[in-house]
Amino acid sequence: MSWLRRIERTRGGDFRLRLTRRERALLRGLAADLRAQLEVEADDPSLRRLFPPAYEDAEAQAEYRRLTGDDLLADRRDALRLLEEERDRLDEAQLYAWLRGLNDLRLVLGTRLDVTEDTFEGRLDVSRPGARDLAVYAYLSWLQEQAVEALASP
């Protein structure tokens, strides 16, 4: 099963998830951790890419956050909650939400790891500090790519 596509469109138009138990456990744990973090640590620097400023003007930015902040946060929580669920099939709207959840996980992890374009030049050195987290980041990127390809397929 390791080389099978993890996400594919079915003849019925929905999407089949073919994740192993370990993959599901990893996604469930990462999503639950980030969702919990969003509940209590809105000022954590690793979350800054989830809520980039819309305005340079501090007053305009504060008003924007006041008007949209709760909705943006609720959407992120819902997407993460969907990642936590034990589903084998998703409709298109759910897969888009699932993809948003994956992207949020990648953004936060990438920020914590200070991932750059040069981070993955060559092979991953497993003795390097943070190698496990870098491998998780690479896995999330691969899974995100699979979701995008499934959405683009006829």
Structure overview:
The protein is mainly alpha-helical and 154 residues long. It has one domain. 59% of the residues lie in helices and 5% in strands. The chain has 4 helices and 3 strands, in the order ββααβαα. A 3-stranded antiparallel beta sheet has the order 1-2-3. A hairpin with a 5-residue loop joins β1 and β2. α3 packs antiparallel against α4. The longest helix is centred in the middle third of the chain and has 27 residues. The mean pLDDT is 88.
Shape: globular
Arithmetic mean pLDDT: 88
Strand proportion, as a percent range, falls in 5-15%
Strand order of the largest sheet: 1-2-3
Low-confidence stretches: none
Structural class: mainly alpha
Q: Strand-and-helix sequence, N→C?
A: EEHHEHH
Largest sheet: 3 strands, antiparallel
Quaternary form? single chain
Helical segment tally? 4
The Rg value, from CA coordinates, equals 17 Å
